[in-house]
Structures are given as C-alpha cells and as structure tokens.
Amino acid sequence: MKPTSTDLGLVARVAHLHKSYGTTNTRVNALTDVSVGIRRGEFTAIMGPSGSGKSTLMHIMAGLDTASSGSVWLGDTDISGLDDSNLTVLRRRRVGFIFQSFNLVPTLDISGNILLPFELDGRAPTAEEQAWIDRLIAVLGLTDRLRHRPHELSGGQQQRVAIARALATRPDLVFADEPTGNLDSRTSREVLTLLQTASREYGQSIAMVTHDPVAASYADRIVLLNDGRVVDDRSRSTPEEISSIMLGMEALS
Amino acid sequence: MTLMLRALREHAPSILVAALSSAFGVSLISITGVLTEVIADADLNSETLTFILSFIAVVFIVIALYVGALVTANTFATIIAGRVRTIALLRLIGSSAAMQRRAVAREGLTVGVIGALLGGIVGVLFPVVVVGVGVAVGMIPDGSYTYATATMLLPVAAVALTTTAASWVGSRRVLSVSPMDALGAAGEQSIGEQTARRTRNRVALLLFLGGNVILGVAVAIGQTSPLAVLIGLAGGILSFSGVVMAASVVMPRALRGIGRVFGSSPTARLARENAVRYPERSARTTIGLVIGVTLITTFAVTAASYQSIIETAQKEMPGVYEGVGPVLTVTVAVFSVLMGFSALIAAVGMVNNLSLNVLQRTRELGLLRALGFTARQIRRMILIESAQLSGAAVAVGLVLGTFYGWVGAQSLIGGIPGSPGIVLPTMPLALIGVIVVAAATLTVVASIAPSRRATRITPVAALARA
After folding, report:
1. Using CA atoms, how far apart are residues B264 and B268, in angstroms rounded to an integer?
2. Does the keyword section mention ATP-binding (chain A) (predicted)?
3. Element (H, E) at A73
C-alpha cells in the first residue's frame, strides 16, 4: 500500500502534475511534471520569476483550477476528481486564502469578513473557535476595528483582517498569494512576521507564492520554480542567497 | 469591429429604452389623431373631447420620457463606473475630463438618435395595424385616416434630446476620475457618492409634507364639492415629487426593509448589502418602477373606491347612478395599459442595471467562490437582490398609490348625495395580483442573465493581480 500524505507528514501534495493552456498549435505548458509536497506546520515559500508557473501550482493545489494530468491531494483527500460543489466545500472548510489585493468583501464589516467562512458553512463558531478568533483579533490589533468597513482601513490593516479570516477556521493549509505585493516595506515585514508566528506558534501550515526574496526569507522552506518545473528546494535562506539563485536562473534561461 | 460590437452591447438597453419611449409617443399621437377623426365624424362634443384626449396623450408621453431618461442616466452612470480605468488611462496620456465627458454625451446622442428613429418607425407602423384590426372587427368605422403627421416628430426629437441629456447627467462621474486611477488597482470606489444633498432632501420633505396637507384639505372639501379633486391633483403632484426627489433616501430604506424578509443567512445578508451599496444607483434603478406602480395603483384604487362609494350611495338612493360601472372599468383598463408602458421601460432598466452590476463585481464574486460560496448560493444571492429591487419598488408604489387613489375618490365624490362620507380605500385585488405576479416575473427574468454570468466566474478571477 502506498503511504498517505499524513504518513509522509505532508498537508498537501501534487504528483507528476502537468498543466497546459491553449490548443495544440498554441499550447503553453504552465507546469511540467511537478511533484512536490507541503509539510504540515511549515511556512513554505513557492518562488519563481513571472511565468514560472508558481501561481498555477497554487491554484491547482487549492482546488481553484484543475490539472491537465497528475494527482493532487489535500491532506489525504485526492481532490483531482472532485466536482465543483465538493471543491467549494473543501475550500470553505480546509483552505484559507490571503490575497495580494486583500479582497475583503466591501459590504461586510470587519467582524463579518472574519466570520464569513463560518457563515458560508451555515454555522456559528463553537465556543472554542470563538476563543481562538478573539485571540487572533487581539493579536492582530483589530479589536477596535470590528465594526468598520474595509475601505476605512489602511492596506496593512486590511491584510491583517484577511489573515484573521484565513486563520479563523484553522484550515489545513493557508495559501498566501503575494501577500505583501501591495504593502510598503515596514508593513510587509509586519505581515510576514505574523505569518511566521502563525506557523511557529500555532503550527499553521502556510504556502506563500512570491517573487520577492525578502518575503521568501521569512519561510522555513523555499521551493523554486522556473519554466513550469521545480528547480530547487531548500531550507531557510537569507534574502541575499535567494536573490543570487534567482539571478542565476535568469542567466540560465 | 470588436470595439463597435462592445459599444453596441453596452448601449443596446439604452437604445431599446429610447426606441420604446419614441414608439410609445409616436403611436399614442397617431392613435389619438385617429380617435379625434372618428369623434369628429360621429359629431360628438368633439372640441372638448379632442382637447382631453390630446392632454392625456401628452401627459403619458411626458411620463414615459421621464422614466426613460431616469433609466438611461442610470445605465450610463453604471457604464461609466465600469470604464474608470480606461478613462483614467486616457486622462493619463493627456485627455481632459471635459473632453471625456463630451465623448460620452456624443455616445448618448448617437444612442438617442438611433433609438428614437427605430422607435419612430415602429410607432408609425403599429397604429396602422391596430386601426386595421379595429376596422376589420367593426370597432372603428372604415375611412382614410392620417397616420403620419409632423407632430410625430416631436416625441422622436424629444427622445433623442432626453437621451443625450440623460447620458450627460449619468456621466458626471467622469469628472472625478483621476489619472492616478489608471496606475493603482482601482478597486472599490463609489462610497462617497452621496454628497451634499441635505438641501435637496429638505426641499423634498417639504414638498412631501406640504403635498400631503393639501391632500388632506382636498378630502375635507371633497365632502361638499367634487372640484376638490383638482386640489387633490395638485397635492398629489407635490407629494409624489417629494418622494421622487428623495428617492436616494427613501429607496435604500425600503430595500433594507424588504431585504429582512429573506432572513439572515449569509446569502441574504450579502444580497441585502449589495442592493444598497450604491444608494444613488439603487434609487435610480427602482424609482422608475415606483412611478409606474404608483400611477397604476392610484387610478385603480380611485376607481375601486369610486365604485364602492357609488354602490353604497345607490343603496341609499336607488336609480340615480345606473351605468357608471362599465365605463369606469374600461377607463381603468386603458389607463393601466398606458402606464404599464412606463413600468415596462423601468423594468428594462432594472434588468440592465443588475446585469452591469454583476459584470462589475467579477473579482468580488470570484472571492466568494474561493472562500466557499457554491454556485447555487451565488445564484440565490442574485435572485434575492433582484427580488429586493422589484419588491421594494412595488411596495412603495402600492402604499403611495393606495393613499393617492383614496384621496382621489374621496375628493371627487365624497360629497355626492347618499355618500357614506369618509371610508377606507377599496383595494382592487385583481390588479394588485397582476402587479405582484408581474413583479415576481420581473425578479426572475432580471436575475437570469446575471446569474449565468456570475456562476461562470471562476475563483481564479479573485486572484488575478491588479
């Protein structure tokens, strides 16, 4: 019997993943034979230059997009065969998202945004979950902001709300797509530290897509993609090291 | 070519609205003309009747024009909101805001002229068919009637002008687009649409209250003189103008109220907020329908109350009021159809607005999908939004129409011999049924296209950068 993801200590994994766009004549291979696992409790950065396939990889792992071939597991669930409504429920319960452009629902206040995943599930948070949410809100410094609307908050504050929303359900895995792309450097550092803390102290598994070496240096592990293939997989590195690898990749291609 | 197609698709609803208004105006003038000829031939009291007919035609055309202009202004405002980035880009490379706005007004002129001409052609042909049928079944005496007169150019020109003016009003937003909007991820804007309208709201309140006082006076005087109905008419116009003017205050409240009916599930809550997130826009979207429903209800309630007062009076003094009923029923039917036309124009506006609204919410809908909204929940949300819009419009229209209609009947015949004095309004249940069914149909129809579009949005849309 094959080992499951859990046996391997993985929270998500893809095997022999291919993804291509377009018809035969104009085919573009976004991902070519990618096999990689995201380890439970770790903060993983998925890096690569524009067009390297890092976003596509994240979309497929999160059940937002489908693979051309290959297998995708979230925990021990093979999600490559799930239909739209099952994928929707899976995302609702087991995945969290943090976006570059924050993406809060403008018509809901901060509290409503944080509780949205529970509401979509048609239930109120349990006492234990509520205690966790309250703690998140306090740690993220949002206590005074709960009744505000997203547009009344600064970018950094909005991103904290998004982090609270992503962590609230204690999902198996949080996907962060260039979470600091729209923030200044000081706010970026704050947000990255928060993600790091979430992973170290609460054991939250996080996969962050980025092309910024500084952001990637906060992660425990760095998976590098180029031209749709995994080209490097390394543990925690300094921004300088990451930069030089990235520059090396440019030279090769 | 694709640009042309896109522009056509964006403007198709406005062209349709202009064409409907113009067709309505032209055919109403034409049919009025034919009727006048029939009356003149029959040698009835022709002068007075002709005058009344022309007056009624003008009133209905003006109402249709007004509703059409509201709808078009709203459509243009929505289109502009979706074009912010393009406009900002043009501003960035050196176009002035005034130039941009003039360009929009030119589009409005084109839309108006095309729509007015198309509608004009239909408007000329339609009465030919109607009269043909009328002659065939013997309702109208055979004869050579004039179907095309110079007067008919008036509604055509008026539609072209009001459409242009409406596009100008609707394009006000262009002035506030900054070239900077082209650089940033122009996300949520619109909040702050509601500015300095205090004075306007005060005037509106004054009109509404003043109008209602006059209506009260009309009811009191109606106990002795039927001429009170003229006072009532003045009061009604003032009071209703107040409501229309304050639509951006009144309608969002009505929308919220109606929204509560759908419960507090996240779907319903989001729908409720969506329906009021642009108060100006939802007010403009719904006020056309409110006008239509109010007018229809006013006439119907007047007629029904009139009839029940007459019936009571008849029991008191038998024989005096024979044969009033049928005439009244026909009159109400004809008026309802004429006013239903304005409601139809308003309905086109609502369908269009909901569509554009969804189109502009792509990213947000993608986000909801990513966070775990099922396609079904999205469809439900849009259906509820649609139901809120039509429900609020119908509710406000029914309440106002019942009140005005009651005043109408009371002031007209409250003092006739044998009258029961001041009584509760009589509700024409059949007509209310028709309005409710029409509103339900509109709700579903308006939500079909946007739902289909919205459920096609993939969650990846939310992650798309910038």
Report:
1. 6
2. yes
3. strand A69-74
Chain B residues close to A89, C-beta within 8 Å: 372, 374
Sole residue written with tokens 């306090």: A138
Task: Look at residues B427, B408, B423 and name the one whose alpha carbon lies nearest to residue B222.
Answer: B408
Q: Rounded CA gap, A153 and A145, in Å?
A: 8
CA distance A86 to chain B (A): 9
CA distance B94 to B298: 53
CB contact under 8 A, A120 and B266: yes
Burial, A135: exposed, middle or buried (Cβ in 10 Å; 0-12, 13-18, 19+)?
exposed
A89 shares contact with chain B (CB less than 8 Å)? yes
Comparing CB atoms, the residue among B188, B367, B372 nearest residue A92 is: B372
Chain B nearest-CA distance from A2, in A, is: 31
ipTM: 0.76
From the number of C-beta atoms within 10 Å of its C-beta (0-12, 13-18, 19+), residue A87 rates as: buried
Residue whose C-alpha is closest to residue B453's, from B348, B384, B357: B357
Quote the CA–CA distance of A30 and A7 in Å, as a whole number: 30
User: What secondary structure letter does DSSP report for A232?
Assistant: E
Q: Tell me, what amino acid is at B225?
A: S
| Contact residues on chain A for B364, CB-CB shorter than 8 A | 103, 105-106
Q: Where are the alpha helices (DSSP H) in B317-374?
A: 325-359, 362-371
C-beta atoms of B374 and A64 within 8 A:
no
Give the number of other Cβ atoms within 10 Å of residue A26's Cβ: 7
Size of interface A-B (CB pairs under 8 A): 83
Give me the amino acid identity at B435.
I
* Contact by Cβ (8 Å): B390, B350: yes
* Residue A103: closest CA among A175, A49, A202, A196: A175
Residue A162 one-letter amino acid: A
CB distance A18 to A67 below 8 Å: yes
Q: Crossing angle, helix B2-42 and helix B97-136, to 10 degrees?
A: 40
Amino acid at A210: T
- Among chain B residues, the shortest Cα distance to A112 is held by B266
CB contact under 8 A, A107 and B270: yes
CA distances (Å), B89 to each of A244, B6, B85, B171, in order? 37, 19, 6, 17
Distance from CA of B8 to the nearest CA of A (A): 29
Supply B453's token pair: 């579009």
DSSP state of B43: T
Are B371 and A121 an interchain contact pair (Cβ–Cβ within 8 Å)? no
Report the distance separating Cα B239 and Cα B137, nearest Å: 44
Interface probe, candidates B371, B373, B376, B381, chain A, greatest A C-beta count within 10 A: B371
DSSP conformational letter for A144: G
Contact A64 B460 (CB under 8 A): yes
Query: Considering only alpha carbons, which residue of chain B is nearest residue A121?
Result: B372
pLDDT in tens, chain A (253 residues): 567 777 778 999 999 999 998 777 778 888 999 999 999 999 999 998 888 899 899 989 988 888 899 999 998 899 988 888 888 888 888 999 998 888 888 888 999 999 988 888 888 899 999 999 999 999 889 999 999 999 899 989 999 999 999 999 999 999 999 999 888 999 999 999 999 999 999 999 999 999 899 999 999 999 999 999 999 999 999 999 999 988 887 765 5
